[in-house]
Write a structure and sequence with these properties.
This protein is of the alpha/beta class and about 260 residues long. Helix content is about 45%, strand content about 20%.
């Protein structure tokens, strides 16, 4: 059942397994929704209070305005944790969710326990590239980017073997509020942790995808060198490593959470 948290005039949609252990928050990618964590929620929810939510403008969440910062998106996570009564929580984020995890670990280290950062980087993309995507959405809506975005999300072989799931990912992109998507693009464009990633003290799992063109393995390798207490794994996937290889991703995540 979907729960909703009131956030200054808009509602954040989230799921809560109400499991027996401490809280772990899952944070999805730009252009996706919380359903991308289906496999991990089933796995982790057996032992932990696993929580996932939809970002602004994504899934079932509302869209406040059209310009966000990483502090806005990180603040949403903190508000959800406060609502859950979790002074300290573990965190798993992919892509944009990984940037939010870095923001939390740098700016609120006392709130973050163990940290999983998948298919992300200290900085993701270029200002020019983000502006091109923003312009495409402003002029053509989400349909203008749905196909190329999904091709980056999922590898050729996986898409061919999973046509229904691929179409569902495409429909998810199309369903996103353009203002919310653009707002999140602006937050990602403005995020840069190249100077601060080394200050992260959480025990950290880094997951990369061998065929990820959005955040290539080198991006996770750079973070692994920068973050003192980190482990790096590279999976045979594109950008959505947790979707393409849920068992390998889940095993690594459980090792981190139980360490």
């Amino acid at each position: 059942m979907t729960n909703y948290l009131d956030r200054d005039g808009w509602k954040m949609a989230y799921d809560d397994t109400s499991g027996p252990g401490p809280v772990v928050v899952f944070c999805h990618a730009l252009g996706a929704d919380r359903s991308m964590w289906d496999a991990q929620m089933k796995l982790v929810g057996k032992e932990r209070r696993a929580v996932r939510f939809d970002h602004r403008g994504h899934g079932e969440s509302g869209t406040p305005g059209a310009s966000y910062t990483m502090a806005d998106l990180g603040g949403d996570v903190l508000a959800l944790a406060d609502h859950l009564g979790a002074d300290r929580f573990d965190f798993c984020g992919i892509s944009m969710g990984g940037l939010i995890g870095q923001w939390l670990a740098v700016n609120h280290p006392n709130r973050i326990g163990r940290l999983a950062l998948a298919n992300t980087g200290a900085k993701v993309g270029t200002d020019e590239g983000w502006q091109q995507r923003i312009t495409a959405v402003r002029e053509g809506g989400m349909d203008a980017i749905a196909d190329p975005v999904v091709e980056r999300f999922l590898s050729d072989g996986w898409r061919a073997a999973h046509p229904e799931e691929t179409e569902r990912a495409r429909e998810t992109v199309r369903s996103i509020d353009p203002d919310g998507y653009i707002g999140c693009c602006l937050a990602v464009r403005g995020a840069d942790f190249t100077e601060s990633a080394s200050s992260i003290r959480s025990r950290t799992l880094l997951v990369g995808g061998l065929h990820d063109v959005s955040t290539p393995p080198e991006a996770q390798q750079w973070l692994a060198a920068a973050i003192p207490d980190s482990e790096l794994i590279i999976l045979d996937t594109a950008h959505f490593s947790n979707v393409e290889r849920p068992e390998d991703f889940g095993s690594a995540l459980l090792r981190l959470l139980s360490a």
